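Dear U.,

Please find below the material for section 3 of the report. The protein was modelled together with magnesium ion; I have listed the sequence and SMILES used, followed by the predicted complex structure.
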Amino acid sequence: MGRVPETLMNLPIKLISTDFDGTLFAEFENPPIPAHLQTLIGELQSQGARWVINTGRDMSSLMEALARSRVSIKPDYLVLVEREIHLHHEMQYVGVEEWNVECHRAHEQLFVQVRKDLPRLISWVESQFKATIYEDAYSPFCLIAGNNGDADAIHAFMEEYCKEVPHLQVVRNDVYARFCHSTYNKGTALAEISRRLQISAENIFAAGDHLNDLPMLKKQYARFLAAPVNAIPAVKEAVRSQNGFVSELPQGHGIAEGLKFHLLQK
Ligand SMILES: [Mg+2]
């Protein structure tokens, strides 16, 4: 994994970081990940570029979606739940323990306070909205709001609560939200992977469509930015304002166009 092939010297993009849902993957399309995008990423990988799927999904849900999509290519790295890093090694994905153990410890420490305040948070939400709230392995408070309007209101409430707890942040994707530690997001995870691979932001491509992608859609992490037409306005604005490429095409078709656009730039 450590060796960078000679041919890669010619490629402006040496590391590709893509969100999954709404960026690569369109659940109701067939195939959900366009064949021409798979071919393009596969060609770049064969020339030495590395590919990261940088997602809010956890391992089992991502693996299931990839298997159902019958993808022909394999990501070199995964960022799961916007924070854990896994490396493709000998047919499987292995956690990058140095990062993941510290990430887990930081979250557990942070969530001690959140757990104490849970009854207050839950009763506020339940008094005003029909929403699903649950605890999973990654956050004591996870939200699925009934619609994006409710999600906006609950998100604002969660942000207000975050002011009480140092390092606490909300990670939001569509009607889903949970708490996280401010040190860990798609951007810092991408920076850690690029540090390990010794690839600078100058040679990194990042693409996403929703709020949880904003932390990685930054020049400090990736010079080449792209978004599909279905991206939310805040993402399109972030990408445009940093000379990135906003496609008129949806999901994976838009990302293929974004990759080609940047590959042709010199
Ligand atoms: Mg997405």
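For the text of the report, you could mention the following: The pocket of magnesium ion is lined by residues 19, 21-23, 209-210 (CB under 6 Å).

Regards,
Y.
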